Amino acid sequence: MKDFLLPEEIKILTEKHHDSAYRKQADRIKTILFLNKGFSFEETAKLLLLDDTTVRRYFKEFKKAGIDRLLEYHYQGSNGFLTGIEETTLTRHLREHIYQTVKEVVLYVQKTYGKTYSIEGMTTMLHRLGFVYKKTKVIPGKVNLEKQEEFKKTYQELKSGKYGKGKIYFVDASHPQHNNMPFYGWIYKGETKAIKSNSGRGRVNLNGALSLEDMDITVLSEKRINTHAMMRLILTLEEKQPAGEIFLIVDNASYNHSYELDLFLQDQKRIQLIYLPAYSPNLNIIERLWKFFHSKHHDKYFEKFKEFEEEVLSFFKNIHQYDKELKTLLTDSFQTLPV
């Protein structure tokens, strides 16, 4: 008795065993997979710490009811529960369509498969199938995925030196606020945790440039982010890098397209601006640096704005203490937006 399973059946059973959270279901699946490999009933029982009678019963049920029997979670000899194949098709459907309530899923299953679940029973099954209840992610409605792909191609050409030898910087601004905001955290049931907050709206205006090549990070504090702030950042980068071209990947903020900046760049022969597609923060790697900063400072309270400002600037001045974490975070594996 060997090789009685089809390749597709082996694939389904292997995947289901990997996802199964129930011992009996896993034992049934492993029994059939072991027997399919040529193990005897006795050998299979010994390997799975089962008795010989149980192994033979599992095989008999499989021969009678097929693969669906193995994939059933709670078998009662009735048609009241989805079969393994039906669960697979339901999973595929739910990954392609969003239902806001469990009741909507119950109605879909009843209409599609003719089987009725309670709200509690369906909730349990959804968790077992790997679904969780969470917020959807908002992406810009005007995002152009084709232009994003074009940018990725341009970026690879920049890296390969097609447009000249030089250093590539991701450039962007951030505005940390002198005010703590509520955040999620593990809090003991029934208890409430409070964090201090300020009533002021002061913020630090940061203009930064990030080079992935050598993890070079330059962050300047500005009164406001405008054309003159961009000029100061460019001059700082030129001073740090006295030779070679400097490619700046920037967004479409108005100051990056200003006439005054264009005039300034006419005398800065080593500087080339590469514009990101509109609505594409996912392509600007320095955005991850700003998020990293906020993750480290979301629960710190500063009574005075001056203290807050000094802490922010000190963080970036000593940023390389986090090199180990940043090495895996700041890479050019661009995030792909869902479609």
CATH topology of the largest domain: Nucleotidyltransferase, domain 5
Overall number of strands:
5
- N-to-C SSE string, H for helix and E for strand: HHHHHHHHHEEEHEHEHHH
Read across the widest sheet, the strand sequence of neighbours is: 3-2-1-4-5
N-to-C span: 47 Å
- The level of helicity is 40-55%
- Class from secondary-structure proportions: alpha/beta
Rough outline: elongated
Give the uncertain stretches in residue-range form: 74-79
Domain count: the total is 2
Architecture blueprint of SSEs:
Layout: H1 7-19, H2 23-36, H3 41-48, H4 52-65, H5 67-71, H6 84-96, H7 102-113, H8 119-128, H9 145-160, E1 166-174, E2 205-211, E3 216-222, H10 227-240, E4 245-250, H11 259-265, E5 271-275, H12 286-297, H13 305-317, H14 323-329
Parallel strand pairs: 1-4, 4-5
Antiparallel strand pairs: 1-2, 2-3
Helix pairs in contact: 1-2, 2-3, 3-4
